Give the backbone structure.
Amino acid sequence: MVDADFRSGRRKSVLLGIICGIMMLYGFQLIRLQVMQHSEYDIKSAENSMKAIEEIPLRGVFYDRNLNLLVENTPTYTVRIIPAEYDDENDSLLETILGFEQGTIQNILQKNSQYSTFVPLKLKRGVEFEVIGWIEENSEKLTGVNYIVEMQRGYRDSIMPSHLFGYTKEISPKLLEDKYYNPGDLVGYSGIEKKYEQSLRGVKGSKYIMVDSKGREVNGLKEKGRRIPASKGKDLVLGIDAATQKAAETGLAGYVGAAVAIEPETGEIIAMASSPKYDLNEFSYFTPKAFINQLYTDPQKPLFNRATMAAHPPGSTFKVLSAIAALENNIINENSTLVCVGGFNYGRFFKCHGNHGAINVVHAIEFSCNSFFYQLIFKVGLDRLADYANKFKLGIKTGVDIGEEARGLIPTEKYYEKIYGPNWPRGILVSLGIGQGEVNTTPLQLAFYTALIANNGKSYTPHVVKGYLDENKKYFPLQFEEVNTGVSQKTFELVKKGMYLVVNGAGTAANIKSSEYDIAGKTGTAQNPHGKDHSWFIGFAPFDHPKIAVCVLVENVGFGATYAAPIARKMMDAYFRKTGKGGQVNYSVAHVVED
């Protein structure tokens, strides 16, 4: 029998050992946390009491090709609320002051309910100083309401290429998947602003403030030792020439249409205008619903970029391509003639503008002889013509750097076989030979096609942005893909001679002839089943050393020489800074043979 005192003593020893072991474990843990890993947990402790606050960088600005500032950042007031501190009873008063509809603030709160109630929510940008003054005077009553100074886009009054620049607006929930952004951030939504968003937005910085366990600021702003400054976005240098852009916008005012100018050697876009346009200033801050509704319901569709998206039959501007395809395939040469008897018979009689007799390719372009090109399309063939069209980026996207772009359409035999079967009616070719029928091109495509002709078949993918400036204002050019049609120098010499005579001979655009520099071009009048014809003009100058290639489209007005060609001439004048004799340019259209 075991002695009771012994058992009692052993129990005490075991219990004491367990207690000592636990004490030793706790002691070791305390030493490890407070001594051995002191620095690591000190940082974590600091992170629990310090909160990183984003510093939003300045957005990159836009310069034109001559380094004239086009788009800048201007300071503006933004009103915010902190949901945890805000009193809902102030909704009606604050909505009245800010010009909101009833219920707007609650909608904003509901949309952002997944975020911390201590994160400030932006109510309205672009608030007038008088409103800010009123908020200051009533700050004791408006708990949780404050304001900050932000930057918004500012535009120079001289030009407004709304479709080209694009606009910024508050980020949508879908785009918040990109971890760079937070609710209330501005992001590019169209044009250059969207295409170059990652370059323009810059790099966010951060500073630190003291917070309590619930994330609320304490003791005001207190910066910790380290701070990461924000880095401004890249400043973009555009190929745009402000004077040429202004001439394009002024020339198109009151019309529906588009104008594009390109530097032939580089592919840089000198001007791009779409009419009607819209006021980008309305997108700089709070955009009224009435303004948005007006844009969407306007029958002229001001949000639609006609320069890159409007696809119409190119009319007689397409004849130059037919000539190129025929010359390159040795179907005709400079001495070949086709007979014009005032039209062409193919099932029915297709009229020409005159009775030109035996005519070669140069004069067929000069006089825009329909009969010549009616016959030529049958010799070239549909697929061969489509192949050359694609070489000049017709019927395919050019790859321009503003995002939205239509392909257009260059029909092939396969295209018609799908519609009509293998025995599709060959009479369709007659209209295609003069740029009518199903063929569709955009103003941008025709401008680039003209630039390739002007520069003997070589250029680079058309682009608006030519480079950027870093924080030290050092310029870095961007690289773009070279385009080479492979067409011979001899062919270009012949078609360009015809285009020269269009303006400087007895052609359809003699009304825009300049005594200051030589223009080569081609008019086009495209039939429109829904109203008046569309007016086209393509051209380049100076003839010997082309520096600018232009395409102008004016919808539903009539002849190319009457409407589109004079606008192109004004753009060229602006680019060369010349105004013709006596400071005025005479755009008389008297005695002009239209096509």
Observations:
- The first helix runs from residue 4 to 36.
